[in-house]
UniProtKB/TrEMBL annotation:
SMART domains: DEXDc, HELICc. This is ATP-dependent RNA helicase DbpA. Keywords: ATP-binding, Helicase, Hydrolase, Nucleotide-binding. GO terms for molecular function: ATP binding; hydrolase activity; nucleic acid binding; RNA helicase activity. Residues 40-211 form the Helicase ATP-binding domain. It comes from Pseudidiomarina donghaiensis. GO terms for cellular component: cytosol. It comes from the Bacteria. Residues 237-383 form the Helicase C-terminal domain.
Amino acid sequence: MSEATPAVTSFKDLPLPQLLLTSVKDAGFTQTTPVQALSLPIILRGDDVVVQAETGSGKTAAFALGILAKLDTNHFSPQALVLCPTRELAEQVAETIRGLAKTMGNVKVLTLCGGVPARSQIASLEHGAHVLVGTPGRVLDHLSQQRLDFSKLNTLVLDEADRMLEMGFQDDMKAIIAKTPNTRQNMLFSATYPSGIARLTKQVTPQAEHIKVASTQTKAKIVQRFYDLADTFAAYAVQQLLLDLQPANAMVFCNTKAEAQTIADKLAAKGFSALALHGDLEQKDRDQTMIQFSHGSTRVLVATDVAARGLDIAELDLVISVNMAHDLDTHTHRIGRTGRAGAEGLAVTLIGPQDDYKMRLLEDDMAAPIKLQPLPEPPNAAKPLKSDLVTLQISGGKKDKLRPGDIVGALTRDNKLTMADIGKIKVQNQWSFVTVNNTSAKHALSLINNDKIKGKRFRARAL
């Protein structure tokens, strides 16, 4: 798979329908990213493509535009299926597709993921959908119960295919693909290209055009530091770094679920605004954790790599790796989460005795030898990272016709809260979340719990 140089720099140079060009403009996209420039000409021709590209490269918009460009909105049957490794990523993908489809009229995008009751999905399927986005397990469940009709399906997307293999979805994917029409267009996106992906590619789309998009992470934008963890407990080392660096937000990556939970618990006990994110958590707890971190009401997220897939934070001050990742590609994706949007980021790796071999492999790709530093001594006045924000959960969402403007109106109705007191708002199907200043939280809860929004009563609580 060879790297290529982008030939297209503007969406206007692509054979996109005018409605989608309007959507692209409304979304604030001006120039194509490298992955979009390289893949969209192939996708829009209707050809199969296999793309190796890093997280945050713009690949979702690339395949979303490809799906929408040939969508027949008059037929309410699934025409595209996107498989994702996690519910979080599936929701993010569905949101991107819906956003780009706004100019096209009534385009129905349905998510089919585990962790939520199947009843509502079954009801939605009965009314038809144009695009399905889901996790392999739940999609296969609906398929085995004959709730899905793939007769009109013309596009199959495997997103984050490497992670789906890592999570053991290979058999599920094969079973789903076997039920799709042979004439479909295939798109496979993967951050890495291990042997398992090569085999999957031969099985799914042997004639595909292969693209490898060069990393957009420049060494000047991400500063890497390495600290010796030989005689120090990991939780204490993370604590010292956070106290010393005082980042606005930080992600701490761990190689095991148990370690992620232990470090998060110890940080919280020391007064840090910190939560864990890993596969052993209930889905609702994972959803709430991701919302709190993305909204800024949690400042430190301690996560495993798989659980963090689908969490896209535009500006992340600091990434800490507790020991080297299992492989160098994963290490690259970890550090690539900082230094986004043109900002300089800092990536710290805590090196234990067991990391020596992987560290030497990494060193081969670096301009200078890695020097292990002793842990910093924070100033005596340094305080644990706390958040000035709190996220409120409201017992209503899209099914209740709630919109962000309705929530803002409810919170500002008595003129005691202003827009400056209100942060991010996210409206999901059954729940809504709004982040407010700590000092305003009590009054915000009272406004929602003691009055109506759009003629209905809802309950709210602080997460």
